[in-house]
Amino acid sequence: MGDVSKFYMVIAFTLAVSLVAYGVLLSPPFKPFRERIGLMELEGTRYNESAGGADIINPHSGEIYLGRITFMYHSVFAILLFGSFLVFARIYLKDSREAKHILDLMFIGVLLTLLGGVAYGYITRDFLFHGLFIAGLSFIFASGLLTLKEFRPKGMMAWNIYISGILLLLGGIIGGWLGASFMEHRKEFLHALIESRFTPSLAEENVYWRALTAHEHAMMALALVFVFFIALSLVKLKGGKTTKYLLYLAIPSQIIMALASYSVWFFGAIAHLAITPAAILLIFSTLMLSFRVEEWNLIKLALLIGNAIMWVGVAIPGALVAMSLRKPLFFNPAFRDEMWDWAELAYNIGHWHILLLTWGVILFVIYIIYPISLGKMGKIAGYLTLGGYLIASIGINLYMLGNPPGAYSPNPYDNIFLKTIVEPALGMLSLGVALGYLTCLKEFLRGFKEAN
Questions:
Q1: How far is Cα 189 from Cα 212, in angstroms, rounded to an integer?
Q2: CA angle at residue 253 from 252 to 259, to 5 degrees?
Q3: What is the DSSP string of 177-234?
Q4: Which spans in 52-195 are helix H?
Q5: pLDDT at 140
Q6: Which residue from 205, 206, 196, 148 is spatially nearest to 172, judged by alpha carbons?
Q7: What is the DSSP secondary structure assignment for residue 296, as one 8-state letter?
Q8: pLDDT for position 55
Q9: Residue 160 pLDDT > 60, yes or no?
Q10: What integer pLDDT is reported at residue 226 of this predicted model?
């Protein structure tokens, strides 16, 4: 299975880089380049040419925009999940006779999800591609069920991963129910999605909005836990009771966090209050475990930086924003005021991008170390990527929450925090990823040539 998983790792790396690069290409700064290569502007974009920023759009365009974002996020999630699963399989399923078939099934699922999602969201709204997208997600879910049959956890590290996998599958069931219900109840769902921006109590009356909240919060948190413990599986932890207790603590922490998220589907706001405390307990245990890594290496650095950003860039700002939603206590934007629509949009997008970026960066660091260390070039790529990630994540929070008071204006792309912090940092990160990818590809092709 080793050669197959290594081949798939390169494929997953290539798909991730390609999809993210496509997303970057669609951003406003690249419009002149898109025009030169004949790439048309997308319907439903939030970019307002006359204002030079992201503006509020009409409901019809908004529906198209939200749909496109949904397909993009699911495609990115599927690729990152596949990339993480490949490392897991090399470590924990190396003796399984069925592992190769599970990898093949998941790979087919990822391809169908990516092809169907991108084609339907960005090229043509043909329901054939929508069907391919759904079929791909079904294949990925089936591969997860087969993995539970094959995986026999031994030790607390493996049990943490096993629990993450079960909880991810439960979250997938909620997502499947939501997707199956959407076409019949799309109007009330989209109405609730819009209402949640201004009057959360009205949105919480809608079971589909609550299912979406439960699904997305749990899936993202559990994916981060999953890749975190995979990374820990590649390093040596300090012995002693502290490490043992932290590994034990992580299991109930992720169970409580996931169940609190899922219960929003049924109970709404009351259950929602339990998500943040449970998540804080979870990232406390993962942060402390990061300090228990014995050897100083890129994986330890990635875990320390990633967990620090979870506190500084996600958990603490998220709690403060939650307390400021109805009345601006800590930040100037009155998020529930329609005139500040762009402010909450900026926060929501930045919040979820940091979470996805954290997952991608940790997985990237794993790939430049395992199964073959990429040496000096890999270290340079890793440090560039981690440095860009750290600076960009802090800069995004300054952009989202640190702007001075002022009347409504379209979300500006020439903001000082974007120009001086976020964009240069993302440039550094992109350079690191490109260097790591090219080095990884070179090493794989060299190994393939030697083997043949």
A1: 10
A2: 85
A3: HHHHHHTTSHHHHHHHHHHTTT-HHHHTT-HHHHHHHHHHHHHHHHHHHHHHHHHHTT
A4: 59-92, 99-122, 127-150, 156-182, 186-195
A5: 96
A6: 148
A7: -
A8: 55
A9: yes
A10: 95
